[in-house]
């Protein structure tokens, strides 16, 4: 993912009050953990090792980001139009 797109997504999540910095994890890190897990099919243990947070913290933030993304799905995910080339 390009940096600009990542930071735009962070901005959208913040502006819609879907994510906020926690005491120990910024919105950027929450989204990075979520995307890492999603893109690599990483286990909780792998994410713990990479981001140096407890399993409970990882699980909580990944679930929070997932709920935020799902709530934006109608804005972020669009079916192709009939004129879209395959």
Automatic annotation (TrEMBL):
The family database entries (InterPro entries) matched by this protein are listed as: DUF8040, HARBI1-like
| Domain DUF8040 stretches | 1-71
**Superkingdom, taxonomy of origin:** Eukaryota
* Pfam families, per database record: DUF8040 (PF26138)
Q: Which PANTHER family match?
A: OS08G0106900 PROTEIN, PTHR22930
Please give the name of this protein. DUF8040 domain-containing protein
